[in-house]
Write a structure and sequence with these properties.
This protein is mostly helical. The chain has 15 helices and no strands. It starts with 11 loop residues before the first helix and ends with a helix.
């Protein structure tokens, strides 16, 4: 029997792939790195050298001005409230809806699945949705954002596929043992699709965290504005803030530094959470995407 040719440690294609991936990483990381660097840079240092690879000076004054002048902690509170309540609601709806659609003998299963698909292509419209929220007394209420983004057809379809991929014998054995549907759902189905649950919980949380369109329309009072709306206000008003900076502070605080400080403060929580849940991503998507 012939022995196949031994593969070289590095082939030309490997080298090309490595170079391309390295360039892509640099292109992605460099803007973020420079944003963080500028947020900690003094005005004098930035004017002298706008593009820096290593900090020539360090200051926290840009963060201090953003936090003191823009009441950014109010945005954090409102956004975290929306993320926590919204993620819980979205996952409850997605899991229960997908579980029902995955049942072989569920009455009206095809109708409800088609109804779900329709929402992926057609929306209620901006004005009707706003009027509905107004009639429900949800204008300037964070629950408006929770309800608007509460249903994700994509999440439900992927979860449905993941549940359908589970052996039907598990449910039958549980029913023989005397378990009801709720016990089967909470103690068998959910633990078995844990990667999907974790993955789409993070997707839902990130979606609520980054949501700004409906927040801009429905949340007009300062006390209920989200972090993304605060960020937009900071970016729009840094020119005015710069006019109020005293001459002594102007050596450290400047327009671009305040903008980058606001961006870093907005991104930081998601960046801290993401690495701990990243390992579930591939497993979650693959489990739900096996059957389409």
């Amino acid at each position: 029997m012939k022995i196949g040719k031994k593969r070289k440690p590095f082939e030309a294609l490997d080298i090309v792939s490595f170079i391309i991936l390295t360039l892509m990483v640099i292109i992605i990381i460099f803007p973020f790195y420079t944003s963080v660097l500028v947020s900690f840079t003094t005005n004098i240092s930035y004017v002298r050298k706008p593009v820096q690879f290593f900090p020539e000076s360090f200051t926290l004054e840009n963060y201090s001005y953003v936090i003191d002048r823009m009441n950014i902690f109010t945005g954090y509170k409102n956004t975290l409230t929306i993320v926590i309540i919204g993620t819980a609601l979205t996952m409850f709806i997605s899991l229960t809806y997908s579980y029902a659609l995955a049942m072989r003998d569920y009455p009206g299963k095809k109708f409800f699945f088609i109804l779900l698909l329709i929402t992926m292509y057609f929306g209620g419209g901006l004005i009707p949705t706003y009027l509905l929220l107004r009639d429900l007394k949800l204008i300037n209420n964070v629950l408006a954002i929770v309800f608007i983004c509460g249903v994700s057809p994509f999440n439900i379809i992927i979860m449905k596929n993941g549940i359908e991929a589970l052996p039907e014998s598990l449910d039958e054995a549980a029913r023989v043992a005397g378990a009801n549907e709720w016990q089967i759902f909470t103690k068998i189905t959910i633990p078995l699709i844990k990667p999907i649950v974790v993955t789409f919980s993070l997707f839902a949380a990130v979606g609520y965290w980054n949501e700004w369109y409906w927040s801009m329309i429905t949340l007009t009072k300062t006390s209920v504005k989200t972090l993304q709306i605060m960020l937009r206000a900071i970016v729009d008003s840094t020119d005015a803030l710069e006019m109020d900076i005293s001459a002594s502070d102007f050596t450290e605080v400047f327009n671009q530094g305040m903008k980058m400080a606001a961006v870093v403060l907005t991104m930081l929580p998601i960046m801290v959470v993401y690495p701990f849940l990243q390992k579930h991503f591939a497993a979650g998507i693959l489990v739900g995407a096996v059957k389409m």
